[in-house]
Specification:
heterodimer; A: mainly alpha; 2 strands; 76% helix; globular; B: alpha+beta; 6-stranded antiparallel β-barrel; 12 strands
Amino acid sequence: MVMRSLISRREQEITFHPVVLVMVPVVALLLQDYLPHLFPHFALLDLPLLVVIYFAITLRSPIAGTLTGAIIGMLQDGQSSHPIGVNGMAKSIIGYAAASIGVRIDVENSISRMLLVLVFSMANSVLTYLIERRLLGFEMQWLWLHEIARMMVNAVVAVGLFWFLDRLRRKG
Amino acid sequence: MESFFSRYKNVLVLVVVLVAQLIALATQIHRPSAMGVGDTRTDGHHVRAVRFAMTGPVIPLERMFTSIGHGVRGMWTNYIYLRGVRQKNYDLQAEVDQLRLQQMSLLADARQGQRLQQLLGFKQQYIYKTVVAQVIGTSGSDQSRVIYIDKGSNDGLRPDMAVVTPDGIVGKVRDVFPHAAQVLEMNDQTAGAGVVLETTRIRGILRGNAAGQPQVIDLLPDDRIKTGERVLTSGGDQVYPRGLPVGDVMSVAPDKQHPPYIAITVRPAANLARLEEVLVITETHDANGAVNDAAGEAEVQRAADAASEALPSIGTPENGTSGASGATGQPLVVHPTPALHVDRFTPGATPPAAELQPGDTKPITPKIAAPTAAPQSAPQAAPQSAPQEKQ
């Protein structure tokens, strides 16, 4: 039963129009840059991370997930004061892991999507912190409450965003 | 071999991507010893070029969003939200009249203050030139407190220029592009600024924490530090001019990461979350603090001389007047009253030491020249009779 479900998910190919594949990350990056200027608390949300997770679990290709994460992460680094590669590395790993999990479990359910985003949001923060603190030797602080708030916000927004992005995909 | 690659291609791609980014990171990192206070991780040329390529397409869109936002806001404020404008106009006119009266008295006080400052040699780092810039975007992450402004190298901006608002400092220019610049806010974890507490004069380094609150770190516990005390820039970082407001002390707590030091959390004077326009300080009076201090002392000396000349002088006996030289604009030269009977104690009667010979027994002849400003009432026969008195 489980094997049949796994095979059917592998065989069920979901694709996107190339314009969607390009424009969704670009718009996400743009909104992420501009909206905190109007609403400072928006910075808690990580729209590019949600886009990486969505494409990774939907396309179910670890290579595509890795590359999507690397490109979006590095573009995000380019906008920030981080050295280029910090978010790139973290999101590459997230993209790879999300795609690998997307093959194995049902990711069409809202609850499972929320749980996935909760876990990957925390993983992204931990990876970014480790890269900056341990690998690069920067003095960074870790605030548990802040990170938990970030997880929750990302998970809640992900439900609506993923529903919207589902409308843009085409099934093969 | 082929099966190995096909079997592990996913992991291999991940490893290749990670290694490539790791190498990219390694090329961007500076050694900590090469970084001083406020010297954050400035990008090299190649990194700046990559960053510019990444932000280049985004900046025009952000600029467009900003102008659309301003347009919508302007339409609302200028056309739609106009109820009660007439009454408000009357009220404002009355307020303007009041303020004009106040302004006249304040202007007189300000001019007096400027004159006094000049006299006392008050010399701080004056801000000479600023460029007004509009905030058009952010980094989008609360882990990187960066904003984008719509002025760049074409407007004379350079890295490490201070960015302020009339309320207080904001941060410093990090990367500069032709038509935009990236500003690192002072509450970023990688930012740094030299600050001083206004009343206690305790100096420290300001840095942001993970929650985006600026903190003065690496200070030993001191009972004199109280909440509410103002924090100013010290000028020691050579980025921010001295004496600009940073904020006030919000709390004082032990630094858990670096005992026994304390960390002072500062409430920023500028509203960093709601920045619309900022000022970039492109030119200051003098960047060198040491030179400033020396020049300041010289100015104080000159001011003291000027003050002594401005003091009321002793009146001359011939006219019996006394008053300040500043009143006429001509400094008065005070001459001693001419002696009635010239002797060897009279000023100018003794020849210079170079003309004296050891063992010379000749009596000293007083050489008295007629005083330049000799009063008319002085006895005319006195100089001629002096030698006879000596003999």
